[in-house]
Amino acid sequence: MVGGLHAVFVTRNSRPNIVLLMADDLGLGDLCCYGNNTVSTPNIDRLAREGVLLTQHLAAASVCTPSRAAFLTGRYAIRSGMASAFNLNRALAWLGGSGGLPTNETTFARLLQHQGYRTGLVGKWHQGLSCASRDDHCYHPLNHGFDYFYGMPFGLLSDCRASETPELHRWVRIKLGISTAAIGLLPLLPLIPRFTRWFPVPWGIIVTFGLLAFVFFVGWFSSYGFVRRWNCILMRNHEIVQQPMREDRVSALMLKEALSFIDRYKRGPFLLFVSFLHVHTPLITKENFVGRSKYGRYGDNVEEMDWMVGKILEALDQECLTNQTLVYFTSDNGGNLEAQARGEHLGGWNGVYKGGKGMGGWEGGIRVPGIFRWPTVLEAGKVIDEPTSLMDIYPTLSYVGGGILPQNRVIDGKNLMPLLEGRVRHSDHEFLFHYCGVYLHAVRWHQKDCEYEDGATVWKVHYVSPKFSPKGAGACYGSEICSCTGDVTYHDPPLLFDISRDPSESRPLSPNNEALFDSVVMKIEAAVKEHRRTLTPAPQQLSVFNTIWKPWLQPCCGNFPLCGCDKEDDIIANA
Between 112 and which of 117, 185, 407, 455 could a Cys-Cys bridge form, CB atoms 3.0 to 4.6 Å apart? Predict the structure, then answer.
């Protein structure tokens, strides 16, 4: 390891290239470097072998939209309004919605852009697109600090493959039906004053509004049946290049774009964020990877993603950029335990950790891979067991890129470089707050003043936990998605675990041990009160209104509603 003052000098002045690799719904137990000995992930394992592996790396939410918002901004999603108060709107559901990452939030891409970095995003965005019209693109990556974007402004759904069963929860479909019917009938309101004789309304206006109502209702309601055409689109910067996306080619196209970005800006410095569509359902996998793993379609998809990681690392090697590049690999949240199709499990494995994607504060939904590689700066093969967060990437990248953190807002992440370099023993996080939507489900306390042989004690309390169904199951199979509020279990007194000794959260500390139990819970409750004092109201980006589909916001290649194009084929044909 490069240590001491020399490490500080290299870190502060070298301005490395930065490559961020984020999987979608990858289980912590799906990687060999985290203990799996049956799935082949040699390239991600190489990163761990040549870099630093974090064993207690945590997402700020157990679903993608709020987790990614926190990752991009270094702040809990509740601060930016990217956390939902509703069970069924916990992530953006439509590209034609009006919610998204607010423009007054400063992403790490914006910070590094100001420091002369060329910044690119290839892959999934899922932080909104437009505010008032389909072309304003107010939430677009290019309005959040990225110089280049190629990928899905939304993200994968099972609907993106025509043969898949739609993954939207049945109550979401019912709610969509009701809302579309109600909004579609709004233009019929001129009938009310005519038949109540409040004031005369000409029949011509009524007929016109009736036709508009019919077209509006059909266009809106049928949009659910054509989710693939509305949500599953591919963009280059502000231009739609495929609508609907060609799932058989999307992985190859995105890898090509990532490698092209490295080639274009290899003289640096650059920031490349590769946001994989893997390993979200419908598990789109190239034919030559199908059937290669022992775990069916899911395992095949993991192994294809690992191959793509290898191609990116190979490009860095070929351009002699390896020693000048900080590479980071993670996932946005834990594996999806509830992903099923025709009796086949299509989600990941979270190892010994309880729960998974969407399950509040249980470890399986928030504990994710965390691997950093920066040769000559970070010690190869080092393992760190301290609590760290996806939010830490924000101040860490600001530090290594020479940026200045915004002073007009709370930044919840911590600079990881002192910990990664070995200049400090413990993480700067004393408390981490685990939200399910806007509801605080659990809190982690890193009790640094209580040492034992392996480090510092980490306590975790659960105030709320989802009800798994059927009874005795490890997920919410009965309802297809776990609730954040309502159909949950409230714990009074709270459940208390020593995560440092019981990472599977299977042995809660008994409240009968009053002295220890009460002292820990009181300390955490005091931290919760202090944390809540730092929260300020923010517009709710995931409100019902913001998340419903609006035809005037629907991105469209062609004439709405007859949207569709494949400009990638045009490029290939003219090449």
Answer: 117
Give the separation between CA 79 and CA 538, rounded to whole angstroms: 7
Among candidate residues 126, 144, 434, 462, the one labeled active-site is 126
Q: In this predicted model, what pLDDT tens digit does every residue of 395-438 receive, in sequence order?
A: 999 999 999 999 999 999 999 999 999 999 999 999 999 999 99
- Amino acid at position 26, single letter: L
pLDDT at 189 over 70: no
Segment holding 17, helix H or strand E: strand 17-23
- Residue 494 belongs to what H/E stretch? strand 488-498
Which of the following is catalytic: 33, 57, 64, 137?
64
Say if residue 193 is preceded by a cis peptide, omega within 30 of 0: no
- Among 86, 128, 84, 88, smallest CA distance to 105 is for 128
SS3 label, residue 86: coil
| Domain regions of the chain by residue span | 4-156+232-429+539-551, 170-226
Output the CA–CA distances (angstroms, integers) from residue 367 to 49, 123, 173, 270, 340, in the order listed.
20, 22, 30, 28, 22
Give the CATH architecture of domain 4-156+232-429+539-551. Answer: 3-Layer(aba) Sandwich (3.40)
Dump the DSSP string for 435-475.
EETTEEEEEEEEEEEEEETTEEEEEEEEEEEE--BSTT-SS
Residues facing 371 on adjacent strands:
53, 329
3-class state of residue 48 by DSSP: helix
| pTM of this prediction exceeds 0.70 | yes
- In a 10 Å sphere around its CB, with 0-12 CB exposed, 13-18 middle and 19+ buried, how is residue 290 labelled? middle
pLDDT of 9 reads 37
Contact (Cβ atoms closer than 8 angstroms) between residue 17 and residue 269: yes
On the question of pLDDT at 221 being above 60, the answer is no
Q: State the pLDDT confidence band at 575, using cuts at 50, 70 and 90.
A: very low
**pLDDT 10s digits, 116-138:** 999 999 999 999 999 999 999 99
Q: Is 138 a catalytic residue?
A: no
Name residue, tokens 């910070």.
Answer: 111
Helix then strand count (H, E) for the chain reads 17, 20
Q: What is the pLDDT of residues 377-394, one digit of tens each?
A: 999 999 999 999 999 999
The pLDDT of 84-107, averaged and rounded, is 92
